[in-house]
């Protein structure tokens, strides 16, 4: 079967204006989902008082979202492959509406954490949107569409910080979640009305045992890594979670190898182009997180340290905001690069630019505008490189595994950012000084974090070059006869 022709079939049935509307809708939906990651950062220090709980309990407001998103991305991708992309995206948007409303009206810790976890579940919308836009966009718009939707992962966080800081400072903290409820409702309606249903289902049974094993393994591993700096790296609990999670994930992999209809096809994940793309995703995800952790702290650090810049959280968010715009600006440039030189070289170039941004920041961090330039450079690299991930994945997996495979790749980036958070916390707490009775990181600790981030990004660039170049011109044939992604009601 001619896979290339099949891929272009849907586009022929959708007008150019309809395709543009679909792309805008999927971008907006992905952006709204990504906003959830940074939504509570401005009020994080106040959450123990707001929720009448301990600092340790309140810290789960971010961790719960991270864990739920990690599990949901490959699962929703698989469900999209089985039941259709539109159904799953509408379902994810509906979950986001319920989750945001629960956080808005809830007053205690439990409903708040349940809402935050459900917001994480809704982020499964993003990898499905990426695979959907590839199937629905006209051939000449596919690369740009994938690049733009992929860029929203970073743009959401960049926009979310100043926006949520302004809302939290101007209104009651519940307003953050009422706003996210409205955004989620708009996404739900727009997805239901604008995105066409597609006959791209591949009937199968959901691998429930694999789902449980993956969830237990991922949650255990990510909890151990993300809480290591809090519980202590000498803690038995920390290492029990990490080692236990790894063991369960190994069992999961062995189980999937024997399963006739696996949740995640381990053999597909083991193919050289897919394997190295996912390893690069971990490294580059690690690298891109350095800016998000280090730069806001530097901007907000007390000026009495001699290197702190004394900015408020709103001011810090505004200094970082141009980075989000840069990702969007470079998304179409990334598409042109992918068409001209291929996705693997585009990914390597993007990762190298990220590293250059961090090196600039490490040697030029004595003024807010200099850190802004560092963020702009690194964000340009993210904008260039992020679109290459789903392109490399979808070019090298069977059609019926596109959604779940993109979901796994998104998970790998999340693993990278989680590990980065743990490593950066360990570095920042290893080199400290006393200021007014409080232990704070030294300037050299921030330098080291930025150089470590640059090193991870460069390592990701090198791994990207290990992806075979020839696979970009040789799409993988479906493993069995399929109904291609043709709009059912275009």
Question: Overview of this structure, please?
Answer:
- With about 500 residues, this protein is mainly α.
- It folds into three domains: about 200 residues, Growth Hormone, Chain: A; about 55 residues; about 210 residues, Growth Hormone, Chain: A.
- Helices cover about 75% and strands about 0% of the residues.
- Strands 1-2 form a two-stranded antiparallel ribbon.
- Helix 8 packs antiparallel against helix 9, helix 14 runs parallel beside helix 16 and helix 16 runs antiparallel to helix 17.
- The N terminus is likely disordered.
Q: Could you tell me the mean pLDDT?
A: 84
Strand order of the largest sheet: 1-2
- Helix and strand run: HHHHHHHHHHHHHHHHHHHEEH
Percent of residues in helices comes to: over 70%
Rg over C-alpha atoms, rounded to the nearest angstrom: 21 Å
CATH architecture label name of the largest domain: Up-down Bundle
Counting H and I runs of at least 4 residues, what is the number of helices? 20
Count of extended strands: 2
State the end-to-end distance. 24 Å
Which stretches are poorly predicted, pLDDT < 50 over at least 5 residues? 1-12, 471-486
Can you tell me the overall shape?
A: globular
Number of domains: 3
What's the main sheet like? 2 strands, antiparallel
Would you tell me which CATH topology of the largest domain applies? Growth Hormone, Chain: A
Decide which structural class fits the backbone: mainly alpha
| Beta-strand proportion | under 5%
């Amino acid at each position: 079967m001619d896979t290339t022709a099949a891929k272009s079939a849907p586009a022929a049935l959708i007008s150019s204006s309809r395709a543009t509307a679909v792309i805008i809708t999927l971008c907006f939906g992905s952006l709204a989902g990504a906003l959830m990651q940074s939504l509570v950062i401005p009020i994080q220090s106040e959450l123990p008082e707001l929720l009448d709980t301990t600092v340790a309990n309140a810290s789960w407001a971010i961790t719960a979202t991270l864990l739920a998103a990690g599990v949901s991305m490959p699962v929703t991708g698989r469900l999209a492959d089985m039941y259709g992309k539109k159904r799953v995206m509408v379902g994810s948007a509906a979950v986001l509406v319920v989750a945001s409303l629960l956080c808005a009206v809830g007053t205690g810790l439990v409903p708040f954490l349940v809402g935050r976890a459900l917001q994480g579940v809704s982020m499964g919308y993003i990898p499905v949107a990426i695979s959907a836009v590839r199937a629905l966009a006209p051939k000449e718009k596919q690369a740009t569409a994938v690049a733009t939707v992929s860029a929203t992962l970073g743009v959401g966080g960049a926009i979310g910080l100043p926006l949520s800081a302004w809302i939290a400072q101007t209104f009651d903290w519940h307003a953050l979640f009422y706003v996210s409820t409205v955004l989620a409702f708009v996404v739900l309606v727009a997805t239901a009305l604008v995105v066409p249903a597609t006959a791209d289902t591949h009937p199968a049974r959901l691998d429930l045992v694999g789902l449980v094993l993956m969830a237990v393994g991922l949650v255990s591993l990510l909890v151990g890594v993300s809480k290591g700096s809090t519980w202590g790296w000498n803690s038995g609990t920390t290492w029990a979670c990490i080692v236990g999670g790894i063991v369960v994930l190994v069992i999961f992999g062995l189980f999937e190898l024997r399963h006739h209809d696996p949740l995640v096809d381990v053999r597909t994940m083991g193919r050289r182009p897919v394997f190295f793309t996912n390893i690069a995703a971990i490294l580059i995800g690690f690298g891109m997180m350095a800016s998000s952790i280090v730069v806001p702290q530097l901007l907000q650090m007390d000026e009495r340290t001699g290197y702190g810049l004394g900015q408020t959280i709103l001011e810090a968010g505004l200094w970082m905001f141009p980075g989000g715009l840069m990702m969007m600006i470079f998304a179409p440039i990334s598409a042109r690069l992918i068409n001209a030189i291929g996705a693997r070289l585009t990914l390597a170039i993007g990762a190298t630019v990220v590293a250059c941004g961090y090196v600039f920041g490490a040697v030029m961090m004595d003024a807010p505008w200099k850190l802004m330039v560092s963020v702009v450079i690194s964000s340009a690299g993210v904008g260039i490189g992020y679109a290459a991930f789903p392109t490399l994945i979808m070019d090298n997996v069977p059609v019926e595994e596109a959604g779940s495979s993109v979901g796994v790749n998104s998970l790998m980036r999340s693993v990278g950012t989680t590990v980065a958070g743990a490593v950066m916390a360990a570095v920042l707490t290893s080199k400290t000084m006393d200021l007014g009775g409080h232990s704070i990181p030294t300037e050299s600790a921030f330098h080291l974090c930025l150089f470590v981030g640059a090193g991870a990004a460069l390592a990701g660039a090198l791994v990207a070059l290990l992806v075979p170049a020839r696979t970009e011109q040789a799409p993988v044939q479906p493993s069995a006869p399929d109904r291609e992604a043709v709009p059912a009601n275009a």
